[in-house]
Amino acid sequence: MQLLRKINELKSVLGADRQNGLSIGFVPTMGALHLGHLSLVDLAAAENDRVVVSIFVNPTQFNDPNDLKNYPRSLENDLSLLSSRLCDYIFYPSVEEMYPDPDTRKFDFGSLEIVMEGKFRPGHFKGVAQVVSKLFSIVDPHKAYFGRKDFQQYSIIKNMVKQLEMPVQLVACETVREADGLAMSSRNALLTKEHRQIAPLIYRFLQEAKDESVAHSPEDVRRHVIEKINSVSLFRLEYFEIVDDLTLKNVSTWDEEGVKVGCIAVFAGSVRLIDNIVFEK
Ligand code: AMP
């Protein structure tokens, strides 16, 4: 396992691998790794000859400076977790290495970027597209792995790859959860004890929503979930929407074509948590 901080160093080792006909799997992360990240690394290792993991807390995707400042960073622990996996290269660039000049590129994801996360985190997906497109052009992977936990982010990246005709195959990976159902997230480490105790309710309410969907309309299910979250005083809901997984538009009946996904963002104290559930119809 090699730790590389410079773009040219990474390009050089990967260029040699590519010349030797080796396939490259890529897992972009912001570090503070947990078993969710490692599940992506393991799948990348199973499907590719070489695995690259990037660790970069990308400033351009943070709309809240405090969130950026407080985002957990734990390189030593990340390296030790990755050393137990089949990971070949860790790319750990500085902000100056990634952005020697301000990134002024514009992206347009149409309606995909104005709903849900886009509504509450203006500019977030522009930043995600900036960093992921840069990383893709540096690593030039055959396959890149993303978690379904960040469902809207995956939609945006799929759209970006299509628009820019990038030669990479995207792989979406299931959400890894704690034993009590809470979706693993680097931000979970920031929860206070009492917020950590109630946090699993988010997924419990999503599962109840799925049960309720058998007999209730999407709008009724949506209202029930909102009521339940609002009944927990330590939560502050940002949104819960039931959307089509391709257009991200709200669905009004379960009979519409396509897969429906319930997406939620909740503050538990000062920590913002997101999760989602697929309604199998
Ligand atoms: P992050 O470091 O939060 O930017 O996440 C890096 C990648 O790991 C993204 O593709 C996430 O969707 C994915 N990821 C984060 N948490 C989980 C999880 N609990 N299960 C599966 N993938 C995850």
Offer a concise description of the structure.
This protein is α/β, with parallel strands linked by helices and 281 residues long.
Encode the helix/strand succession as letters. Answer: EHEHEHHEHHHEHEHHHEEE
Cα shape: globular
Biggest sheet: strands side by side, in what order? 1-4-3-2-5-6
Radius of gyration: 19 Å
Largest sheet, if any?
6 strands, parallel
What is the tally of helical segments? 11
Question: Helix content range of the residues, please?
Answer: 25-40%
Please give the alpha-carbon distance between the first and last residues: 44 Å
Oligomerization state: single chain
The set of bound ligands, ions and cofactors reads: adenosine monophosphate
Would you identify the regions where 5 or more consecutive residues have pLDDT less than 50?
A: none
Q: Based on helices, strands and strand pairing, what is the structural class?
A: alpha/beta
Question: How big a fraction of the residues is strand?
Answer: 15-25%
How many E-type strands?
9
In round numbers, the mean pLDDT is 97
Describe the structure.
There is one protein chain. The relative contact order is 0.13. The protein has helices spanning 7-19, 35-47, 65-70, 75-83, 95-98, 117-120, 124-139, 151-163, 193-198, 201-212, 218-230; strands at residues 2-4, 24-29, 50-55, 89-91, 143-147, 169-173, 235-244, 260-268, 271-279. With 281 residues, the chain is α/β, with parallel strands linked by helices. It starts with a strand and ends with a strand. The protein is built from eleven helices and nine strands. Helix content is 39%, strand content 20%. It is globular, with a radius of gyration of 19 Å. The structure holds adenosine monophosphate. Residues 29-30, 36-37, 39-40, 146-147, 149-150, 173, 175-176, 183-186 line the site of adenosine monophosphate.
